[in-house]
Amino acid sequence: MEPVTIIALFIAAAALGVMAFVLLRGNGRNSGRADEQAEQMTRMTERLVAAQAELAGRLSQIAEADAASQKALSERLQNQEIAITKTLEARLADVTRKVGESLQQSSVKSSETMSKLQERLAVIDVAQKNITGLSEQVVQLQDVLSNRHARGAFGEVQLQDLVQSALPPSAYSFQQTLSNGKRADCLLMLPNPPGAIVVDAKFPLESYHALRNAKDDNARTQYSRAFAADVLKHVRDIADRYIVPGETAESALMFLPSEAVYAELYANHPATVEKSHRAKVWIVSPTTLMATLNTIRAVLKDASMQEQAGVIQTEVRKMLIDVGRIDERVGNLKKHFRQAEKDIGEIEISTGKVMSRGEKIEQIELGEGAEMDEIAAGAEIHALERGNG
User: Fold this and answer.
1) What does the pLDDT look like over 86-134, one tens digit per residue?
2) What is the residue extent of each domain of the chain?
3) Mean pLDDT of the chain
C-alpha cells in the first residue's frame, strides 16, 4: 500500500474521533437533539470501527507486503552476493594466475640475468687476471728499462725479432765481430755497393724521461740539451766503431727501440738529426727499420735475380754451342745418307742388268756345241759389263 493512502486513513480516523468528541460535548448543551446525536454517534462509531478495520487490514497488507518485499530483497541481495562472490573469485583466480605467470617470468628472467651476470663476472675475472698479468709485465718492463744493460739487451732482442721476420737467414748476422775488434749488434749482408751495413741498438731513456717530466721551461731546455747530447754521443760511437772502410758500407743504422723517443727526436731536435746525417748514421725506429728491411729485401732479391740471369746466360751460350755441334753432326749424317742412297741406286742398276741377262739366257735354245759357244760368249759379255759397272 502507498504511504499516502495510509496517511489518509489515519487522518480519517482522527477526524471521526474529533467528531465523536464534539458530539459528546454537545450533549450537555442541547438535550433535545440527543437522539439525533446518538444516532450520528452510532454511525460515526461504525464508520470509525470500519475505518479501524480497514486500517488494520491495510496495516496487515502493508506488513505482508513488507515481509514479501524484504524476502525478495533478501533473496535479491543473496543472489547479488553470490554473483559478486563468483565474480570476485573469478577475478581473484585471474589475478592469481597472472601474478603466478608474472612471478614465473620474473624468475626465468632473473635466472637468465644471473647467468649472464655470472658469465660477465667470469669475463671480468679473466680480464682482471689479464690486467694483473699486464701490470706485472709492465713492472718487469720498468725494471728492465731502469737497468742500462737490461735495456740494451731489450733493444737487441727487438732488433733481432724485426730482422729475422723480414730477411732470410743468409742476409744478416748477429753479434758479428769486425776487423777492428768491435762487435756489432747486427750486420746486414748487402752486395757491393753499398756493402755490409751495421745496425746498432741504442736507448737514451733517462734523458728522455727527464725531458718528459720537466716542470718548467728552464728544466725542459736543460733536459732537451742533455737528450740531444746523449743521442749525438751514440751517433759518434757508431760512426767510429762500425763504419770500416773496405769492410762495411759508408753508413750505419742507429736503432731506437721506442717510437716515442724517435718521435721526440725528429719532432723537436732537427739539428741533432742533421748532425747524424752528416756523420752518415741513419736513426731508425721499429717502424722505419721495418720499411728499411723491406727495401733491403727487395735489393737482395734484385741482386739474386741478376746473379741468376748471369747463370742463365752462361748456360744459354753453352747450349748454343751444343746446338751447333748437333747441326754439324746432322750434316755429316746427311752426307752418309746421300752416299748410301747413291750406292743403293747403283746396286739397283746392277740388279736390273742381271735380271735382264737371266731372262735372255732362258730364251736361248741351241745344240751342245753352239751351247758351249753361247755360254763362253755370255761369260765374256758379263765380264765386260762388270768392268764397266
Assistant:
1) 888 888 888 888 877 888 887 788 788 888 888 888 888 787 777 766 6
2) 3-106, 147-284, 310-388
3) 76
CB 384 within 8 A of CB 378: no
Who contacts 179 (Cβ-Cβ below 8 Å, separation ≥6)?
244, 247
Indicate the burial class of 8 (C-beta count within 10 angstroms; 0-12, 13-18, 19 or more): exposed
Q: What is the CATH code of the structural domain delimited by 147-284?
A: 3.40.1350
d(CA 386, CA 355): 14
